[in-house]
Fold this protein.
Amino acid sequence: MSKQKKTFENREKPKLLVLHGPNLNLLGTREPEYYGRVTLEDINLGLARRAELAGIALETFQSNHEGALIERVHVALQQGVRYLIINPAGYTHTSIALRDALAGTGIPFVEVHLSNIFAREDFRQHSYFSDLALGVISGLGHQGYLLALEYLLNKINTD
Ligand code: DQA
């Protein structure tokens, strides 16, 4: 094996983390008129396949607990995660603490929502995350995650 090839293989893959907030473990059966019928497992599988093809190390994490999501963001910093994709779910509209974790670690992120939060109840139309996000995808269903990933893959290639 040539020296050049070895160096390439030893180079660490860029890391991405996808965070899913509360109740997203119920995707597939939860209010399908808003969230569709695709399960979280299938969403994660699609992301993992795309990331593998692109040579990216992608991890996914779902929790119904605010503190667990915050701690996962802190771990992401230690792991050297380059970018996050996050659907904060209900915490979108309530969690200053999770927002602070993202601001405090400074890991750039894309915010994703399956439903169009701007076409729903008033209380959903404010996000504690959007002004910090690289961008927001809302209303494109499960495809939103793949579109966010595509954007970040492109960004990693041009960084
Ligand atoms: C959501 C929208 C939120 O308002 C809601 O609380 C969710 C899911 C979405 O993906 O559309 O749990 O983030």
Remarks:
- The chain has one domain: 13-117+137-158.
